[in-house]
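hey so i finally got around to running both of the ones u sent me last week. sorry it took forever, my laptop kept dying halfway thru and i had to restart like 3 times lol. anyway pasting them below in the order u listed, first the sequence line then the structure token line for each. didnt double check formatting much so if smth looks off just lmk and ill redo it

first one:
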Amino acid sequence: MPEMIAITETLAIDERELDETFVRSSGPGGQNVNKLATAVQLRFDLRGSPNLPPGMKSRAEKLAGQRLTREGVIVISADRFRTQEQNRDDARARLVELLQRAAVVPKVRRKTRPTLASKKRRIEGKKHRAEVKNRRGRPDLE
């Protein structure tokens, strides 16, 4: 049975949709840095994923930015840690975090009109300010 990676309570992606490649890391590793491939490059075909709704896909494309290829594949590189397993978990966590942010539907802004009272307050404020500025002029000699 394929393992599912939970994004939200109702959404999950199949682990088989992820493609992980291990490469040599430029990060920490001590004497092993030039011998072991500890960095992970995680690829997730966003446009080809059958488990994500279309609205979420478009929001995820915007959030991914430069991590998204022309083909619609999200590429996440992780080399913060010394072990393959930690870097793998880090890359997956970053992908899940990105998809969770994309799952949030932005609230639709509805235009509102200013109330009559707020219009009156604004006009009163303008009149008061104009009065203050008028008093700064030269005094009348009459």
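and the second one:
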Amino acid sequence: MSKLKQFLQDAETKAFDQGHRATIKFNIGKYDAAVQRGLTQYTDHELARERGSYIKTNTINNLDKYLMEFEANFTSRGGKVIWARDAQEALKEVGEIMKRKRARSVVKSKSMSTEEIHLNEYLEKNGIDVVETDLGEYIVQLADQRPYHIVTPAMHMSKKDIADLFVEKLHIAPTDDAQELVLTARKLLREKYTSAEIGITGGNFLLADIGGIAVTENEGNARLSTTFPKTHIAIVGIEKMLPSVMDLDLFWPLLSTSGTGQQVTVYNTILSGPRQPQEKDGPEEMYVILLDNGRTDLLALPEKREALNCIRCGACLNVCPVYKNIGGHTYESTYMGPIGSVITPHYDGMAENKHLSFASSLCGACTSVCPVKINIHNLLLLNRKQSVDEGLADNQEKTAFKFWLKAMKSRTLLNLAPAGVKNFVLKYVLKDTWSKRREPLHVPKKSFNQLWKEKNKS
């Protein structure tokens, strides 16, 4: 089944799943309330967004300079930088590190870049035990699912769903106590930190001036994943760059408020290399894998490169009417929702993923909440245009528009068929699309052209 057919099938199933809708409405409702409280910390949130947009745009436009600066500063403290052009290169480099370290177990903190390259699947195929240490990621790992949301991976699951999962997979006694569920996961995960040879993280920001990685989290699992194991690997998209550590006073609050409604997240860490001689903890070796995987292709498109400004807060997902109806898994991509629909065709191929850019109402709600003011709905339109310019529209669509264009350019052709024939054609053409869930379209007996002539005669 093609990605488009699968998408349409899954979208219809989820849109009419009342249980799913109730869970998402409840969870996003809590997010909306938290964000409104979080925004009260700003006297001028719009100014903060404008500054964030300016800094990220300037950084992306000079990305080569900042990447080289980052590498020089990071390696000066004993860190090692690996450049990966695509997912295969990134996985190969991770595999080489695993072999050198003879690693058999890995603890991993939440990271969308590792989801993007399917790292867990790769490690498991090579006989390495990999455990997600973020609670939401741990839950979806147990359920053998991909993350449902950029920020909250298990947003689609209720407390009962999680309790049932723990009973099935972890063999605990049935419970509806959320704290007991958390403590169960915590107890199991604590043992993993001390036994794992390697810890893997992503990075919320790369800091060029100090050669550092900024990681923001709420559970402390990323700190544990980078402290106990002797080797730390950070896999970070090249677009996560910021010029200076001083920019974090703007971006950490922007990310946390838009992502979870907090004024700032609980744990904010800067990692700038392996353990130094005077330091008592931290990894003996630290690698940063700078992941391209389609990002430079997007960078090469001046009118679309602002998509790389994204700081992965997830705000556009929570406000999107399409995402709230069809859910995160329907997109069948690492990045879902409006921003996912923008970048996925450039990362994974326009031909296979062009339909995502059409799965939008273009209401602009995503653009209105983006903390770095990405013009998301316009980028979706540009993706649509690119797919048509590249000849990726299917033959049925091309034929329909060809006849429509001819008819619209000729009043004679437009009036040629009577209303009854037009209604018959519309009924046949739209029976599996528009008319499946809506009242059928009907052409009036008299066209506007006829009514206009009658009016002028009278």
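quick thing i noticed on the 2nd:
The chain has a mean pLDDT of 95.
anyway thats it, ttyl
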